[in-house]
From TrEMBL:
One of the GO biological process terms: glutathione metabolic process
Gene Ontology molecular-function annotations: glutathione transferase activity
Residues covered by the GST C-terminal domain: 1-88
Bilayer-spanning residue ranges: none
Protein name as annotated: GST C-terminal domain-containing protein
CDD domains: GST_C_Tau (cd03185)
Length: 99
C-alpha cells in the first residue's frame, strides 16, 4: 500500500461532504474557497493514475464542481495541464526512488 492508495481520496471525500446541494463551496457563486481549491483539480489525474481509483466514482460532487468551475474561461485558462502534473509526479517519484 502506498500513500496514493488512501490519502488523496480520503481528503477529497472530506471536501465532497461539504457540498450539500450547492454548486460551489460558498453557495450559488464561485468564491474564495473555490478559487483556492480549483488548482488541485489538475492533480486529480495523477491521483487516479497513481492510486488506481476513480475520483468521479468516489466523489461525483467534486467532479461536478470542478467542471462547473472550468466553464469559466478565467479558471480554465489559468490551470496547469493535468498530464504535465502527472509527468511531474512520475519524475519526482523516480527521483525519490519510489517509482
Amino acid at each position: 500500500m502506498t500513500i496514493w492508495d488512501t490519502i488523496p481520496i480520503n481528503l477529497i471525500q472530506v471536501l465532497e461532504g461539504e457540498f450539500g446541494q450547492k454548486p460551489f463551496f460558498g453557495g450559488e457563486k464561485i468564491g474564495f474557497v473555490d478559487v483556492a481549491l480549483i488548482p488541485f483539480y489538475t492533480w486529480f489525474y495523477a491521483y487516479e493514475k497513481c492510486g488506481n481509483f476513480s475520483i468521479e466514482k468516489e466523489c461525483p460532487k467534486i467532479v461536478s464542481w470542478a467542471k462547473k468551475c472550468l466553464e469559466m474561461e478565467s479558471v480554465s485558462q489559468s490551470l496547469s495541464d493535468s498530464q504535465k502534473v502527472y509527468e511531474f509526479v512520475l519524475a519526482y517519484q523516480k527521483k525519490l526512488g519510489i517509482a
